[in-house]
Amino acid sequence: MNVLFIEDDRMNRRVVRDMLDVAGAHMEEAESAEIGLGRIDAEEFDMILVDLRMPGMDGLTAIRHIRARDDAKGRLPIIVVTADRAVDLRERCLEAGANDVIFKPVAMDALFEAMGRLLADDGDELI
To answer: In this structure, are residues 6 and 61 in contact, taking their beta carbons and an 8 Å threshold?
Structure first.
């Protein structure tokens, strides 16, 4: 499994990379939404993890850009990874096109459960 994590904080990327390594998944990093969108254009991914609050383009805008694509990459599973706990956050993320939301600090079981649900919906094997 090849995962793209769009997140501006290096430590958060490292923590999630270590978790995905345990599952045997490969993670690519993008430190901004703009870089992440470029990587999606150039590379193949099975899933995208995205933070909401980043300098420049925010995560919701990035999700909308991904969903606006008319190719298979526009349908990639997307999980929002955020520290924001606003009351309507989950609804706003789902409206933008995210498939799920998990909260920081990221717990390994929450990450794997969310990924597993999306993979099961897609007919793939669980991590």
So the answer is: no
DSSP for residue 80: E
User: DSSP class of residue 104?
Assistant: S
- The Cα 43–Cα 109 span in angstroms is 27
Q: Which residues pair with 91 in a beta bridge?
A: none
CB of 49 closer than 8 Å to CB of 20: no
Predicted structure pTM score: 0.94
Q: E strand or H helix at 30, and its extent?
A: strand 26-30
Tally of CB atoms within 10 A around 107: 12
The pLDDT profile of the chain, 127 residues, written as one tens digit per residue, is: 999 999 999 999 999 999 999 999 999 999 999 999 999 999 999 999 999 999 999 999 999 999 999 999 999 999 999 999 888 999 999 999 999 999 999 999 999 999 999 988 765 544 3
